[in-house]
Amino acid sequence: EMSNGHGCCKSGPGYASPLEAMSGPRESLIYVTAVYAGTGIEKPDYLATVDVDPNSPTYSKVIHRLPVPYLGDELHHTGWNSCSSCHGDPSAERRFLIVPALVSGRVYVVDVKTNPRAPSLHKVVEPADIEQKTGLAYPHTSHCLASGDIMISCLGDKDGSAAGNGFLLLDSEFNVKGRWEKPGHSPLFGYDFWYQPRHNTMISTSWGAPSAFTKGFNLQHVSDGLYGRHLHVYSWPGGELRQTLDLGDSGLLPLEANVSISVKPLKVQNWILPEMPGLITDFLISLDDRFLYFVNWLHGDIRQYNIEDLKNPKLTGQVWVGGLLQKGSPIVAITDDGETWQPEVPEIQGKKLRGGPQMIQLSLDGKRLYATNSLFSTWDKQFYPDLVQKGSHILQIDVDTEKGGLKINPNFFVDFGAEPDGPSLAHEMRYPGGDCTSDIWV
């Protein structure tokens, strides 16, 4: 059996290089975390399997749901037990999806290899075990390491204090191994992270104290210093905090940080503030390093930039797929001339687009961009109450990889408002064979 689905059976999981990954097979399934926690529906969160093969009779449908055993988890981000970082190890296998539960602190291990169309639960790492051995809670981002270990950023301690955050290590059997960073080298605030072995570097972004963000967004919490505005630079694999970059007031809440492109706040009427930030909540770069994509969750647009000239990114594509400003909303943007405007947001298959674009995933060949629209249940409820009442959706954006450009695919709409147990909130997406936001090359 070929371990990566198309290459030599002597290699490990994934691909030898990003460019080789671009010629990998087209995605036919997507795994999506779907949340009931915080929505008022007393059902467990679940991992949804979505058919994305346009030649399939169940195209753009949820074909399987794996509920977890508990309520109130808030499944969020996911990662693999092994990926392209283990490509040189023929004994490694991309078999398990690691699914941290941000609120409860559990970590679920899901077997997606035995039956890719119907994954099964393999193991539960209990929060008490994690807390007892490491003091960590609120697990967020998971990445596999070339050693076979799994590393998960944790945003605080069990009391929700950001000062208690750090990086959890699980071994290849998913036992709690300890913390990754050296004692005294924990970040002030943690969030997402990515390591680059070729530069012996890891970078972590900031969100906020779980005691604050789990209650919804409150401006007073920003004034109280409960949100971060830093990037943290670590030695890899040593775990020493080498540098902290303060992004200043404009960098507050850098859920994802970007300093080369600026999204100016829009002057608005009929909103809680006189200006509305874009709130960039996710971004990614194509595997050939040509295009950068990001979303503005509040404004409602997805953008594509050509970054071949790193110092001069060029906007090459933009689509409006939701947001607080769309036509029909009471909230309007105001130009410098005092004119009001609202973007046109199309309906897809007769459905009004709810919320704003939040998480994105790009196909290996760079031609299809998928977008979900749930950020975190309490924030969804606060900014987009319709989203909680009517459910999430997934869109597919067709990408022009030659000249640049984005276009909504009218044939693809996954409606999580039509789920059997009621509307749910869809967050992060993964392909069974790996993708450009989870694979790391060493």
In short:
With 442 residues, this protein is mainly beta.
Secondary structure topology:
Elements: H1 18-22, E1 29-35, E2 46-51, E3 62-67, E4 79-80, E5 96-100, E6 107-111, E7 120-125, H2 127-134, E8 137-144, E9 150-156, E10 166-170, E11 176-179, E12 193-196, E13 201-204, H3 210-213, H4 219-223, E14 230-235, E15 241-246, E16 266-269, E17 275-276, E18 280-285, E19 291-296, E20 301-306, E21 314-320, E22 332-334, E23 340-341, E24 360-362, E25 368-371, H5 377-383, H6 385-390, E26 393-399, E27 406-415, E28 425-430
Antiparallel strand pairs: 1-2, 1-28, 2-3, 4-5, 5-6, 6-7, 8-9, 9-10, 10-11, 12-13, 13-14, 14-15, 16-17, 16-22, 18-19, 19-20, 20-21, 22-23, 24-25, 25-26, 26-27
Tell me, rounded to a whole number, the average pLDDT: 93
- Global morphology: globular
State the separation between the terminal residues, measured CA to CA. Answer: 24 Å
Query: Into which percentage range does the β-strand content fall?
Result: 25-35%
Query: How do the strands line up in the largest sheet?
Result: 3-2-1-28
Q: Which CATH class applies here?
A: Mainly Beta
Number of domains: 1
CATH architecture call:
6 Propeller
- Computed over alpha carbons, the radius of gyration is 21 Å
How is the quaternary structure best described?
single chain
Largest sheet: 4 strands, antiparallel
Protein name: Selenium-binding protein
Pfam family, one: SBP56
GO molecular function: selenium binding
Organism: Cajanus cajan
